[in-house]
Design brief:
Number of helices of chain A: 10
Number of helices of chain B: 5
Shape of chain A: elongated
Oligomer: heterodimer
Shape of chain B: globular
Strand order of the largest sheet of chain B: 1-3-2
Distance between the termini of chain B: 17 Å
Largest interface: A-B, 33 and 25 residues
Strand content of chain B: 5-15%
């Protein structure tokens, strides 16, 4: 079952496997690639006398062609419930609009939004400093290792961000760092790989984007948490103390309404309603951001 | 091995889909220690005359699914050279499943053998050729 041009190197095999898995969930792809790499390297280590091409020739018969392997992983994911556990596969409680109050995903997303500012600042600073040092340093002999080190750090940061995104937003991300380049590769080959890898650029873009997005998320989250609490707490205090602090000079009837007990109760209910709206918003943003992260950090 | 028809390949594949879990649990239970994927692949190959009954690559997704079901546990360990290895070990739940599955497999085998014997007793189809 060998194809016309069977892959002769581990790298080529993994590339072909990645192609064969195109469209599958990124987590599945990274699992399949990690397994294949582990096996192929094991096979190479076990056959020190053979060339990489010879080993791969055997491997394709014993391990399977990239197409066969891709099919195995796909059918495995389709056949068995929860073979690759996804947070999304937990029993979902669709409680309608108000059900969101018990949805862990909404709170995870809210948490993510709060964390997005500090992490965003860090990512942005790291990226800007790294890029702006890497370029002038390229004039010097130590510039090349520095740039490679920086690219490596971007991969690690992206991976860490991926773990956060999976943990809080429930979008499946790779469990492992991407395969590191083979040790025997020349520096030039590594640079070429890093520069031609779309993932390097999309990860950089993501890390930069995270700052403005983080500012927006953080602001929305803080306002979203504080506003309903202030409305509820404020009207409660007003109700208890019997003295309304609400003044809306522009709209006299509203101003009047909020000086009555029913008006304050209404305001409180509105605050409570806002909590649900905010949770829905957080969930929506979480979903959007999760997919953005998936696109820029994994899929491309 | 002679080139098989697509039907046969599909049939083998479907048979293996459930059995590979059983085989892998058995291998890990017998080993009684943690093993990593490549090691398991080699152990499975040595299990019988099978060899190419199924591709070694097919065991990895099964290992992951058994892990996800809690029948195996796994941990990743960096190796001195090459990529990190994922070590698998059978859990107590896995041992329980293994003994139940062995029973299920025996029942199944008897059932299938009986059916095939009956078929052999009154030969009418091409099935005989396989036994010739």
């Amino acid at each position: 079952m060998s194809t016309d041009r069977a892959p002769a190197t581990v790298r080529a095999y993994l590339e072909e496997l990645r192609r064969a898995l195109k469209g599958a969930s990124p987590g599945l792809i990274s699992d399949a690639l990690a397994d294949a790499e582990e096996h192929l390297q094991g096979e190479i280590a076990a056959n020190p006398g053979k060339t990489e091409a010879e080993v791969l020739d055997t491997v394709i018969r014993t391990y399977g062609t990239p197409q066969e392997i891709a099919e195995e992983y796909r059918s495995m994911e389709a056949a068995i419930a929860g073979p690759f556990p996804k947070p999304a596969q937990k029993p979902q409680h669709h409680g309608g609009f108000f059900g969101v109050i018990g949805d862990p995903r909404a709170y995870g997303a809210l948490m993510f939004m709060l964390l997005a500012l500090p992490t965003g600042i860090f990512y942005f600073t790291w990226t800007v400093v790294g890029v702006s040092l890497s370029i002038p340093f390229l004039l010097f002999i130590f510039g090349i290792p520095f740039a490679l080190l920086f690219v490596g750090s971007v991969r690690i940061l992206s991976h860490v961000e991926g773990r956060i995104v999976e943990g809080l937003l429930g979008v499946r991300m790779p469990r492992r760092l991407p395969a590191s380049p083979a040790a025997d590769e020349t520096v030039w080959a590594r640079i070429r790989d890093a520069l031609t890898d779309v993932r390097t650029w999309s990860s950089l873009l993501y890390l930069l984007l995270r700052l403005p997005l983080g500012v927006i998320y953080f602001t929305l989250a803080v306002v979203g948490i504080v506003l309903p609490l202030a409305l509820i707490g404020g009207s409660l205090i007003d109700l208890v103390s019997g003295h309304s602090h609400v003044t809306i000079t522009d709209v006299p009837w509203l101003d009047h309404l909020f000086h009555t007990a029913p008006g304050l109760v209404l305001l409180m209910l509105f605050g409570a309603l806002l909590i649900f709206l905010v949770l829905h918003m957080a969930k929506g943003i979480g979903w959007l951001h999760g997919h953005l992260a998936e696109l820029l950090l994994v899929r491309l | 091995m002679a080139e098989e028809s697509p039907y046969t390949r599909k049939f083998r594949k479907e048979l293996m889909a459930g059995l590979s879990s059983l085989v892998l649990l058995a291998v890990l239970a017998r080993a009684g220690r943690e093993m990593y994927g490549y090691e398991i692949a080699k152990a499975v190959k040595a299990e019988g005359e099978g060899g190419l009954i199924f591709k070694q690559g097919a065991i990895y997704p099964v290992l992951r699914s058994l892990d996800a079901l809690g029948l195996l546990s796994s941990r990743v360990e960096a190796s001195a050279f090459g990529p990190p290895r994922r070590y698998y070990a059978i859990t107590d739940e896995g041992r329980r499943a293994l003994s139940e599955w062995q029973g299920a497999w025996r029942d199944m085998r008897e059932f299938v053998d009986d059916a095939l014997q009956a078929h052999l007793a009154a030969p009418s189809g091409p099935l005989l050729e396989n036994h010739a």
